[in-house]
Amino acid sequence: MSRWVLRVVTAALAGLTLVTGCGGGGGDDGSGEGRRPDGAEVTIRVPADAPTISDAVSLARPGDLVLVAPGVYRESVRIDTERVTLRGESRAEVVIDGQVRRPNGVVVTAPGVAVENLTVQNNTHNGLLVTGSAAAVNALPGDGGYDTGDEPVRLLDSFLVSHVTATRNGLYGIYAFSAQNGVIEHSYTSGGADSGIYVGQCRPCRIVVRDNVSELNAVGYEGTNAGGDLYVVGNRLAGNRVGLTTNSDHQEQLLPQRDAVVAGNLIADNQQPQTPEQADGGWGIGIGVDGGSDNRFLRNLVTGHANAGLVITATADLTADRNRITENTFTANGLDVGWTFPTATRGEGNCLEGNELRTTVPEGLASGASCSIPDTSPTPSGSWRGPAAPAGIPFTEVAAPAPQPELPGARTSGATVVPDVPELPVVEDVALPSPSLLADRARVRTS
Question: Per its UniProt record, what Pfam families does this chain match (predicted)?
């Protein structure tokens, strides 16, 4: 059956759910493909109204809900209609499976889209990609990443990712690239061969990453060339190879990375061998800053890293300046804070204040690099010997996720309205997390 015929038939099906907010009678919607109540919200059910998720999405119009019944859907879904909600009836039992041959599980290229309460797995690139970049969408299987080159920056505007499980994907689990005004929340990522959650190439981002568990990835969270009202708050980034990185990279535009807030996160025991081995060999590090500037790290609990709790370094031509590290607790790390610049590039104005820590390289940073120093004060550099990274495992062999919470009202609620601009956290209200933060959702137990 052609998609055009399917759309006509589906629009007329008695079983198709119509929810009207203000009443109103039916009328031609102008497409010549059936009638719906004026302004009505339509729920398109898979497989009752359309046999695949892709078919259902092709029927959807702005404001519609695509509601997916339990099953394994071996497809790649692209949402290019604005303000569509894609939701699973069961987070664990609605599975979009790439079979390790499709690049992406779900690709969002339209504004105002919500993706909720489902699992994306076994994709060669990304579980869920939200982007305004054609380079990211069109990357071929086998590519190791995306070089945006001279592609004009186009930021997709407004998105929501909530209660999504992304596991065993060849690059990123949840990937927001060249996108802004969005939220990634209440989600779980594991088995990301690069990182579980990635935010890249946005300024101002106005993105909130909150209340997520990211474990058994090469990196739990990565932010590249991303900043400006970017908040990573209240997440459990534990049991990866590296917990969190914020960095600048010439493969993406909007250099350099600057102005992100990392607050109230548990960043723990990021030295798990049963994880995908990242190409650059990162291991046993809680937080890494590479060529990023004007970032704030506050009230994070950073514990259990054989190499270092927090590292600041720089690329050959991009400095790391004015990063503020305040009111964090560092415990049980080989080294709590280390600043090292192996090239001629140096940083300025990086500072520490009010942290609980024991060891730094160079020594005495807690007193000699307090946040009363001038912004132009040279950042001292030192070196230390960290442990060698053990061999990793293929991303397809990473342990299965622990049970994850369902989106409340997933089967009964209507479409989600994504705000044009998300509500941003009040940093002063973010507290130091407990060591058991979100432990009920995690497979890896921290020490």
Answer: NosD (PF05048)
Q: What is the pTM of this model?
A: 0.92
Which of 327, 318, 314, 321 has its CA nearest to residue 295? 321
Exposure letters 326-355 (e unless 16+ CB within 10 A, then b) = ebbbbbbbbbbbbbbbeeeeebbbbbbbeb
Contact 431, 301 (CB under 8 A): no
Q: Quick one: how far is CA 41 from the chain centroid?
A: 29
State the Cα torsion 391-395-396-401 to the nearest 10°.
110
20 phi and psi, to 5 degrees? -105, 130
d(CA 263, CA 210): 10
**d(C-alpha 72, C-alpha 96), whole Å:** 6
Separation between Cα atoms, residue 170 and residue 100, nearest integer Å: 8
What's the whole-number mean pLDDT along residues 296-306? 98
Q: Tally Cβ neighbours within 10 Å of residue 99.
A: 12
Rounded to whole angstroms, the Cα distance separating 91 from 111 reads: 23
Q: How many CB atoms lie within 10 A of CB 86?
A: 30
Which distant-in-sequence residues (6+ apart) come within 8 Å of 415 by Cβ?
41, 43, 63, 64, 65, 83, 84, 85, 114
Quickly state the pLDDT bin for 146 (edges 50, 70, 90): low
Indicate the residue type of 185. E
* DSSP designation for 56: H
Residue 156 pLDDT: 98
Among 178, 215, 216, 219, smallest CA distance to 199 is for 178
pLDDT at residue 201 greater than cutoff 80: yes
Sign of the four-CA dihedral 243, 244, 249, 251: positive
Listed in order, strand segments (DSSP E) in 26-101 are 26-28, 35-37, 41-46, 65-68, 71-73, 77-79, 85-88, 94-97
Q: Which residue has the tokens 């802004």?
A: 180
Q: Which of 100, 136, 110, 119 is nearest to 53 (CA)?
A: 119
- Is the peptide bond prior to 433 cis by the omega test (within 30 degrees of 0)? no
State both tokens at 211.
């209340």
Q: Which residues pair with 297 in a beta bridge?
A: 262, 325
pLDDT category, 140, cuts 50, 70, 90?
Answer: low
Short-list 109, 149, 103, CA closest to 131: 109
In CATH, the architecture of 100-441 is 3 Solenoid (2.160)
Beta-ladder partners of 62: none
Residue 23 confidence (pLDDT)? 29
Q: Are 219 and 278 in contact (CB under 8 A)?
A: yes
Number of H helices, E strands in the chain: 4, 34
CB 18 within 8 A of CB 11: no
